[in-house]
Amino acid sequence: MRKTRIRHLRWAVFALTCAALHAPAATSTAVQELNWSVLGLNAPADIVIDHWGIAHIFAANIHDAFFLQGYNAARDRLWQIDLWRKRGLGLLAKSLGAAYVDQDRAARLFLYRGDMEKEWAAYAPDSRQWVTAFVDGVNAYVAQVQSGARPLPIEFKLTGSQPDTWRAEDVLRIRSHALVSNIASEVARAGVVCTGGLKADELRRKIEPVGHKVTVPPGLNPCDVPADVLKDYLLATKQVEFGAPAATPQHADNSAERQLAAALDTQSMEGSNNWVIAPSRTETGRPILANDPHRQLGAPSLRYIVGLNAPGLNVIGAGEPALPGISLGHNDDIAFGLTIFYIDQEDLYVYELNKNDPDSYRYKSGWAKMQLVRESIEVKGGASREVELRFTQHGPVLGLDAAKHRAFAMRTVWNEPGLAGYFGSSRLLMAKNWNDFKVAANAWGAPPLNLVYADVQGNIGWAASGRVPKRKNWDGLMPVPGDGRYEWAGFYGKDVLPSLFNPAQGYFGTANEMNLPAGYPSEQNKIAFEWNDRSRIDRINELLGAKTKMTLADSMAIQTDVVSTQSRRAVALLASLSSQDAALLQALALLKAWNHEESTGSVAAAIYEVWATKHLGKATVAKVAPEAARKLIDNGQLQAVIEYLERPDGALGADPTAARNAILLDSLRGALAELNQRLGPDMTTWTWGRLHRATFEPAVAALADPELRAQMSVGPLQTPGSSSTPRAQAYKASDFSVIAGASVRLVMDVGAWDNSVAMNTPGQSDDPMSAHYRDLFPMWAQGSYVPLRFSRAEVDADAEDLIHLSPGR
């Protein structure tokens, strides 16, 4: 095949349509054709890789499609998926050395240890065959690497390690990569209540639905819960680090309270947007489905875009590279997308231990014995380490307090069959209609999701999905005694969660906000009380409702919109304020005149973000909360802080309004001082982009020489937006560098699939020497898109590489 000038013109028109600020690098008109033989493949097949690194797999049968998905994932992401498996199974020390023994032990606490037959049965009927084929494909590539037929990725050379072979059950037993909540918040709340009372926690986290009051569960002493009780949990769920830790400044706060606050900050950054638009509100008369899941960002990308085509299977979209199938995207008939729906799927249990037998805990009228599991952790270059894992009937034991005779364990849906993260999507791959979609939604386990839907018949819908524990006598917001008084009474059945089919307004979106419908049964409101603020969904709905006929470009513009509705409320607090301080007066004028667009060139955006997210909350907490509770409350949750300042109370003294105004001005003065130190004395140069920059570097780059480390690094580039804008771009408070945002963006033209578009960052490959390691990063930063082709003809038209695969002998 050869590229034609027409195809290049088609790309040029497409790039302009997507509002790309720069044309992509010139691509060769020649397609590189390769012929590979693969042992385990049943019939000849093709992998077509387009100009943007997206692999489209065309196989003769479903087995081969999933086999080649695994083979291709290893071709493009072997280091990443191998590390994912080793981290999840607790096998790091075997490859990387003794420094990882503690992390391995922690990870093993959270593995699925139940009945594997029940686990397999919880997913799509043929999922076992799919996972087995996928793993066989990964192993086929690993075998080629081990034989020298394929190159060993540079990261293995840096770490002196080799890729492992996989078992099918490995994919499902790993739980600690999935997003569930709210155990970290439970521990933080216990600490705040212990030191400052229930009222103090209201600044740390807003509770919804409005009107629900937190109470201390009878029998719990909040002061019994140590701040470091989640040490193993945080260790098991953290990313793998390499090299010697950086020198820690003497003033740095590495306390358990600070680590817990940091974990909560990280969790709050991970969300998503999605929406569906009915044919009645689009220019084409076809539905549109848009989705941009927000996660921690880095190199390589968390997600991978892939197409799978075989008789009986035709899907394209994004998923985790170590999982078969896709999590969001479309098949021939339906499109589906996801955001987190904050079901509370975790609880911390506090036990009284038997003073004469520390492995026994009080349960009902007697004592129950912990299960003790001994495992051996292989260690590279040394002797194996024997470790002990303890479990109560609720789950893994996270910690012991010998002095107080207390133990702490976690109950989580991870222990239940069918809770492998995102693999509930196995039931969506071949869904053809709303009924099929609802079956998948009702069976979904974790993470809990807002699943949105659109089909080629013109229907749209939404279904809240996830395994929901029944808590009959408490709300899940604080730890509870483990003596039998607080037990999950099973799980709610199908259709307990709300859903919506063909809404009258013609569109529906979600952005992790509290979206339980008015009148939702009160006994089921115990599913969750901690949600993200409404800033993103309010702006999304504002834009979706602004036009009667929407286009794909409109949805792209919404995904990359950088207007903060949250800032409107915060800045409104300043409306009546003035100052004799010239700098403060200048800043007030800029904020009051601001259009709330957080562009890279905006001075007001820089002032607002430094003020609102770093100084305003801290100043408010310092005035309202008891001193002992402030470290855990930290800056507070911004929406809770803003709402408190809108209606200040007697905690601020005899004149709450005057005290509130003093907080506003003092905190703004502190923000200006920080900006002056960071960016210099000229306020007119304080643009948001000077602070808010994206630089991605894999952790393993710490082991590389300077030249290779530079090659592995991506960026920096200035980026607009923040966590309160639809274009979510969360950052580290220490230096404002971007650390979370849209891991992938999809906008799908339902029924005219070849018109769909996508974006991944920084690229599709994890090979730092590949052009597809970083090629999408500038486009992502600019808010541009690439085609998401579906038909074979259009895929071939955009081909860069064509790999012909034949069964090996």
Overall pLDDT: 93
**How would you classify the helix and strand content by structural class?**
alpha+beta
The total strand number stands at: 31
* Overall morphology: globular
Task: Report the major sheet.
Answer: 11 strands, mixed
What does this protein structure show overall?
The protein has 809 residues and is an alpha+beta fold. It is 33% helix and 21% strand. The chain contains 25 helices and 31 strands. The protein has an eleven-stranded mixed beta sheet. Strands 4, 5, 23, 26, 27, 28, 29 and 30 form an eight-stranded antiparallel beta sheet that branches. Strands 10, 11, 12, 15, 16 and 20 form a six-stranded mixed beta sheet that branches. Residues 1-27 and 245-252 have low confidence and may be disordered.
List the helices and strands and how they pair.
Elements: H1 5-17, E1 32-38, E2 45-50, E3 55-58, H2 62-89, H3 92-96, H4 101-109, H5 116-121, H6 127-147, H7 154-159, H8 168-173, H9 183-196, H10 201-204, H11 231-237, H12 256-269, E4 272-277, E5 288-296, E6 304-310, E7 313-319, E8 328-330, E9 334-340, E10 346-354, E11 357-363, E12 366-369, E13 371-377, E14 385-391, E15 397-401, E16 406-412, H13 434-443, E17 449-455, E18 460-465, E19 469-471, E20 480-481, E21 488-491, E22 499-501, E23 507-510, H14 535-544, H15 552-559, H16 565-572, H17 582-593, H18 603-624, H19 630-633, H20 638-646, H21 656-679, H22 688-691, E24 693-696, H23 706-712, E25 714-718, E26 729-731, E27 738-742, E28 744-749, E29 757-760, H24 777-782, E30 786-787, H25 792-797, E31 799-807
Parallel strand pairs: 1-31, 3-6, 10-20
Antiparallel strand pairs: 2-3, 2-31, 4-5, 4-23, 5-27, 5-28, 6-7, 7-8, 8-9, 9-17, 10-11, 10-16, 11-12, 13-14, 15-16, 17-18, 18-22, 19-21, 24-25, 26-27, 28-29, 29-30
Helix pairs in contact: 2-6, 4-11, 9-12, 18-20, 18-21
